[in-house]
C-alpha cells in the first residue's frame, strides 16, 4: 500500500543549496515546504514511532485472522477472521458483516497499515466477527476535502463491484478478492471511522442514503460507528479550553489540519467539520443509518461530539452514545497503554464490546 513507509525521527536533508523552507507545519506530524511539497517525517517524541510502523500482510493465520492488501483505487487492507470450514466457497456459519474502516489523522496524515490501527482492527475483526476493509485515503493539503469523502464512497462502490458483481478487472491479487467474496455479506456493511475518519463515515453514509437502496443493492449500509469524530466549531468549546492536550491531539493539530483540509477559505463551521451547524443541511433531511458515537471524556472535541449526538436525537435519528470515562483522544489506538494500563485496557474492551453489540443488533 502506498505511503506505508516508516516515518523517520530526523528531518530530511534540504534540497541542494538549502533553498526549501518550512512555511507551515502540524506539531510533529507534517511540514509544508515553500516549493509546495509536504514532508511527513515524524519530528515528535521518538516513543511514538513504534506505533507508526507498517505491518506487512500475511496469508498464514495469526491470532485467528489473516491480513491481505488489495491495491486499487482506492487500495484496501483486509482482515479476514479464520473460518472454521469453507465448503464449496461458503463459510461454515454463513458470511460475515463487513466493517469498512476510514482512518484518522486530521485528513492530513497516517496510514491503515500502521501498528496502532492494526492492533485494534485485527482484534475487532475477530471479536465481532467481521471482515474489516480498511481504506487508504488521500491526504491534505495535497488533496483537500471532499476528496476524502469521494474516496469513501468510491471504496463502497469498489467493494460492491468485487463482491456482488465479481469484477476482478486488473486486480493484482485475485486470490484476496476471492477470499473477500467468500467471507463478506455486503447486505450488512458498517462504516467505522476514527477521528476525521468518522467525519468521512457520516458523509459517505449520507451519500449512499441519498442515492437510495436500489442504486447500491445488494450493498446496504446497516450502521455507522463514529469513534471520537472530528466535529468542531469556529469558536473554542469548553472542552477545547479545559482538556489537556496529548501527542495524538493538540489544539495546533485541530486548527492546522482543518485549515489544510477544508476547502480554501472555509472555517470549521463548514459542514465537513460541523454537520450539526447552520451551514449544513438540517439533519432531519439527511438520510443516515443507525449510529453509534463513541466519545472520550478527556477529548478536546468532547463537547462538539456530544452536541452532534444531541442534534441527531433532535432530528429523530437512531443514535447510541458511548462515553469513555477518563480517556483522551484515540486512547484505544495506543497499543502500549492498552497493554500496560488497566484503565485504558478496560475502556478499550468496553469500546469493542459496544461495537460488537451494535453490529449484532443491526
From TrEMBL:
Q: Which GO molecular function annotation, any one, does this entry have?
A: hydrolase activity
User: What are the residue boundaries of the Alpha/beta hydrolase fold-3 domain, all occurrences included?
Assistant: 99-332
Q: Which SUPFAM superfamilies match?
A: alpha/beta-Hydrolases
Give the start-end ranges of region Disordered: 1-20
Q: What is this protein called?
A: Alpha/beta hydrolase fold-3 domain-containing protein
Q: Name one Pfam family in it.
A: Abhydrolase_3
Please note every region of biased composition (Polar residues): 1-12
| InterPro entries xref list | AB_hydrolase_3 (IPR013094), AB_hydrolase_fold (IPR029058), Carboxylest/Gibb_receptor (IPR050466)
